[in-house]
């Protein structure tokens, strides 16, 4: 499933294609949305926002298209009516005088009045989006200490979109590694220094992943490994998808486990429990 950085990059592409341009034609695959085609035709796209893994295309007539890519959704930006050769099902298409923005395979699409957006069942519960909102280190730390989150294991909490929007499976493993936090710990088990490291790791890795197209490893190290012919899948992350490989920091073998029914990777040395560090 694409995570927040991937959705924000897709939103950037959609915005470049549609921003401040008149929608000449629009298509919805779902019958219950067909009535909005005439309503949105002729309107102008004013901006494209994200909230975690959701995208919001805003129009000057007071309406917003909400979409969530879920597991298989994918946006294509093409020259006008130049549809891609794909077996995916087209769900939404927006056309202006030069470009077509095409959403395939997604099933979670709605049209909302602007005043309805904040009350949407997903949007009303989702946490801050670090790529669309200003969130400080102190604000994140206070969130970790909130009674809603402080007693939940990091391995579960980081996937909760109500905590921070847009963090998914690869970011979860990478954030805990960079913060030196064992997957079994909770915020309440952590020192102030660990909480600060966790907050900084969340901010830095979400931003870096967005800027680099998904690289969460040290950028100089990733560049060096790439120059040596190492495959992207082996240098992209610190620990995610690297089971059995050596940790880039300590050389110990990366381990794989499961949390929230999803695979999780960690270094048992760099992320040792407090009483085991240095043993």
Write the layout of secondary structure elements.
Blueprint lengths: L3 H15 L6 E4 L7 H5 L4 E7 L2 E6 L3 E6 L5 E6 L10 E6 L3 E6 L3 E6 L23 H9 L8 H4 L11 H11 L12 H21 L6 H9 L4 H4 L19 E5 L2 E5 L13
Antiparallel strand pairs: 1-6, 2-3, 3-4, 4-8, 5-7, 6-7, 9-10
Helix pairs in contact: 1-6, 3-6, 5-6
Description of the molecule:
With 279 residues, the chain is an alpha+beta fold. It has 2 domains: 4-119, Alpha-Beta Barrel (N-terminal domain of MutM-like DNA repair proteins); 137-276, Helicase, Ruva Protein, domain 3 (Orthogonal Bundle). The protein has helices at 4-18, 36-40, 137-145, 154-157, 169-179, 192-212, 219-227, 232-235, and strands at residues 25-28, 45-51, 54-59, 63-68, 74-79, 90-95, 99-104, 108-113, 255-259, 262-266. Strands 1-6-7-5 form a 4-stranded antiparallel β-sheet. A 4-stranded antiparallel β-sheet has the order 2-3-4-8, covered by helices on one side. The chain is globular, with a radius of gyration of 21 Å. The model has no long low-confidence stretch (mean pLDDT 95).
